[in-house]
Amino acid sequence: MNFDRDPEEEVFREEIRTFIAEMWQKASDAGLDRDAPLARRSVEFWTRALHNKGYLVPTWPAEWGGKKDWSAKKIYVLSEELVKGGVPDGDRIALDLVAPVIYTFGTPEQKQRLLPRILNADDFWCQGFSEPQAGSDLSLIRTRAVRDGEFYIVNGQKLWTTNAHNADMMFALLRVSSGGKLQQGLSFLLMNMRAPGITVRPVISIDGGHSVNEVFLQDVRVPAKNLIGEEGKGWQYARYLLSNERVAVAAAPQTRKDLGKLKMIAKTERRNGRPLMDDPLFRAKVSQLEIDLLALEYSVMRMVDMMATNDPAMERLGPILKIRGSELRQRVSELQMQALGERGLAFYSPPFVEDLMPHLVPPGPDYAKGVTGTFMFRRSTSIAAGSNEIQRNVLASSGLGL
Predict the structure, then answer these.
(1) Are 394 and 301 in the same domain?
(2) Mode of pairing for the β-strands spanning 151-158 and 144-148
(3) Is the domain of 75 the same as that of 132?
(4) Which of 162, 329, 322 is nearest to 254 (CA)?
(5) pLDDT score at 390
(6) Pair (79, 153) in one structural domain
(7) Which of 133, 200, 195 is nearest to 164 (CA)?
(8) How far is CA 238 from the centre of its chain?
(9) Is residue 346 part of a domain?
(10) pLDDT of residue 327
(11) Residue 61 is part of which domain span?
């Protein structure tokens, strides 16, 4: 791959920036709040705008809006500029995780029924993998699906289910048999979150926010037509999905944006009468972070290139991206906290708490807001999508043959 900048890349960047500016104006005219980017109306607006422009799913097959003539670098430039422009993140669980499984392993009927709704943000999705006794090791899943004519009857519990409280649909790994290897008894099933027997309870994370949930499933009737692929082959489809998830969890464009904020804070905060960025020890930490991030960005582009050709080597690169990406997200948030110094002690409550106690005025500069909460929540990045310890085991076995 050629990572050098070229004039066409700069033209493309300007095209994206112009589009973003125009759409922000339309979003404002439509009454959408820029400070509430994850509100459903905002996500719907931007998903549809990106799809109409051809920016939404460049890695998908061409028949569903993909851009097979785009290079991996062009795809990365797009994601980088969307993050820089503050474009609300779409339903990545739908776009990056379940959709590739559907268009790769699903039936023609499933593709026609489900993919257009994902592209139009008609359905929001959640991922039903982890359970109380099955976190990083999904082979231990216990939630059962028993065939009953044209339906499966599902009973069990899912945990750490991101966005389940807003989701219309869930894709889940469920146990259909107990014989043989544990992985061979799993199936990949799609469920309507409005179906009777599904209960969602919030899990409030350490930063005071609500993004994850526990989901209880009691005698839930799921149409058999919602089975992806063959019964008992869910593990195969899940491994394919997890390769995509680890690229998303690497979150290199978001870390690049966070690094920019870190530099701004370090240039503004002062130590002994001088900007913190003038401290050679702190500057060395920032420089090393930037070097490591650049290496991650190149690796992400290689992964995108591999995905286009279904290169088997991506199964080994995926865990590397997950480990390095999660560690960098934690490091940049740690340095932001260090740069804030004592200001980092001020915890900014999430919006629903501020609504209850509006008299509380957050102390410190505006750029300190959210840093503490982000620092605490980022501790989870080395656990999400399979803990880093598990990823190292995967590398040891598949990459090194240990």
Answers:
(1) yes
(2) antiparallel
(3) no
(4) 329
(5) 87
(6) no
(7) 200
(8) 16
(9) yes
(10) 96
(11) 7-90
The reported pLDDT for the residue numbered 352 is 46
Please state, in angstroms and rounded to a whole number, the distance separating the CA atoms of residues 330 and 380: 9
Q: What is the DSSP letter of 229?
A: S
User: Is the pTM value of this prediction over 0.85?
Assistant: yes
Q: Which residue has the tokens 């649909």?
A: 169
341 and 379 co-located in one domain: yes
Residue 190: is it exposed, middle or buried by C-beta count within 10 angstroms (0-12/13-18/19+)?
buried
Cβ atoms of 373 and 348 within 8 Å: the answer is yes
Q: Please say if the pLDDT value at position 246 is more than 90.
A: no
Number of domains making up the chain: 3
Q: Find where tokens 């399979």 sit.
A: 386
Alpha-carbon gap, residue 150 to 187, rounded angstroms: 16
**What type of residue sits at position 104?**
T
> In Å, how far from its chain's centre is CA 191?
20
Q: Which of 97-111, 303-317, 327-341 has the lowest mean pLDDT?
A: 303-317
User: Residue 47: how many CB atoms within 10 A of its CB?
Assistant: 24
Q: How far, in Å, CA of 191 to CA of 193, rounded?
A: 6
Mean of pLDDT values over 227-251: 87
Q: Do residues 129 and 66 both lie within one domain?
A: no
Mark whether 255 and 223 lie in a shared domain: no
Q: If phi over 0 gives left and psi between -120 and 50 gives alpha, with beta otherwise, what is residue 401? A: left
Residue 174 has pLDDT above 90, yes or no: yes
Tens of pLDDT, residue by residue over 386-398, are 889 988 998 888 7
Contacts of 114 (CB under 8 A, 6+ apart): 99, 102, 106, 123, 190
Q: What would the mean pLDDT of 187-191 be, rounded to a whole number? A: 97
Count of positions (residues) in the chain: 402
Nearest to 333 by CA among 213, 244, 207: 207
Q: Which residue has the higher pLDDT, 400 or 129?
A: 129
Which of 296, 299, 288 has its CA nearest to residue 335? 288
Which CATH number does the domain housing residue 160 bear? 2.40.110.10
In this structure, the answer to whether residues 228 and 312 fall within a common structural domain is: no
**Cα–Cα distance for residue pair 358/366, rounded to 1 Å:** 17
Taking the C-alpha atoms of residue 111 and residue 99, their distance in angstroms, rounded to an integer, is 9
Average pLDDT, integer, range 80-108: 95
Dihedral over alpha carbons 191, 211, 394, 334 (to 10 degrees): 170
| Rg (the chain; Cα; Å) | 22
pLDDT digits (tens, 9 = 90+) for 50-62: 999 999 999 999 9
